[in-house]
Amino acid sequence: PTxxxxxxxxxxxxxxxxxxxxxxxxxxxxxxxxxGQTTGCTSxxxxxxQTLWAVANLQKDCTNFFHQxxxxxxxxxxxGGHAEGSTPTALTHSSGDKVDIRLNDFVDExxxxxxxxxxxxxxxxxxxxxxxxxxxxxxxxxxxxxxTVKCVDL
Length: 154
Fold this sequence. Notes:
The protein has 3 helices and 7 strands. By secondary structure, the chain is of the alpha+beta class. It has a 7-stranded mixed sheet with strand order 1-2-3-7-6-5-4.
């Protein structure tokens, strides 16, 4: 894979799926969500370039760290049903700034050992881990990592 994926966001479903699969990132559901459906499907249309790269880099960096496939799997994207911010500039799933990653031992160990844990928890009680630049935020929820991408250039 190359770093030529340069559109600001992926308006369609096929482009981000192909991109992530080229980096060996799994997607928990093969089907995009039809309008109004929020379960049993995962949508990636509208996901921003930097969010896609954050997931690809997590797969690459985690795999390199452990010298074996970390099996990063997207479990939530831009489909409806996620909690959304209340301001027009909020970083949300629907805006393409957030993605959910399935928990697994390799991903969990990588995030908790390579990112800084903040002393405060999120309002829902989730532990928060951040990168040194403040571009990536990983919140550990009950069954996934809620990843927020805050910078355009990773």
